[in-house]
Design a protein that fits this description.
Blueprint lengths: L4 E8 L5 H8 L8 E5 L15 E3 L2 E3 L5 E4 L4 H13 L8 E5 L6 H9 L2 H6 E11 L3 H7 L1 H8 L3 E5 L6 H14 L4 E5 L17 H13 L2
Parallel strand pairs: 1-6, 1-7, 2-5, 2-6, 7-8, 8-9
Antiparallel strand pairs: 3-4, 4-5
Helix pairs in contact: 3-8, 5-6
Length: 222
């Protein structure tokens, strides 16, 4: 683990399908061995067939070798603890971290916590922010929940789900709204969480300094 480990932040609207997407992603060999950090196991319905052996009181090992880590403390503490466990031999090395946020989470403080910690940035590199948007309720959610606007504005890749059940005119209007909020992020559609790992990794459209500046701009605008 001498090179900096890539970190992907997976965020998105409530009910947009983040957990389904993540579950399908972790079965792909191309995803490699990941450490997945979530708020708490109770907040994410991992299917029973996904759960493997328990590697600690807060870590579940999934078939294929990926780790799912439920943490409530600061992100920096969780990341540092994962590294320490690897160095102590408690965990096998992993090649990537995925942070799944709750549907109501503002990603700006998470990104500030990562990018603003020099010690963390020696070990990790932000690989991208991926935001999943529900095409059926997206416009209404953006209007009523400011956190979701931050999720869109800070994304490197936008994924539009449920386009198969949304009206075409609504999908087109929502796409225009997303482009206005974030003209840099590429917009893709995803059906039932099916997407190649390569479309989620290495998607960053800003360098770390530009991302940090955008995070601060967003936080100061509240």
């Amino acid at each position: 683990m001498s090179q900096r480990l890539p970190v992907t932040v997976l965020t998105g609207f409530l009910g947009a399908g983040k957990t389904t997407l993540l579950a399908r992603l972790l079965t792909q060999p191309a995803a490699g061995r990941c450490a997945v950090i979530i708020n708490e196991f109770g907040a994410v319905s991992l299917d029973h067939e996904l759960i493997g052996t328990v590697a600690g009181d807060d870590i579940v090992e999934l078939p294929g070798g990926c780790l799912c880590c439920a943490r409530r403390e600061a992100l920096g503490v969780a990341l540092a603890d994962l590294l320490l466990r690897v160095r102590c031999g408690e965990l096998q090395p992993f090649g990537r971290v995925i942070i799944e946020t709750s549907g109501l989470a503002d990603p700006a403080p998470i990104l500030r916590g990562l990018l603003g910690d020099p010690a963390l940035m020696e070990a990790f590199v932000l690989d991208g922010v991926v935001t999943l948007v529900d095409a059926v309720h997206g416009a209404q959610t953006l209007a009523s929940q400011p956190e979701t606007r931050a999720q869109v504005a800070l994304a490197d890749r936008l994924l539009l789900s449920k386009t198969d059940v949304a009206e075409a005119a609504a999908v087109e209007a929502l796409g225009a709204q997303l482009a206005a909020l974030n003209p840099l992020a590429e917009l893709e559609t995803v059906t039932h969480g099916a997407i190649e790992a390569a479309r989620l990794f290495g998607v960053r459209v800003r360098d770390e300094a530009a991302t940090a500046a955008e995070v601060e701009r967003w936080l100061s605008a509240r």
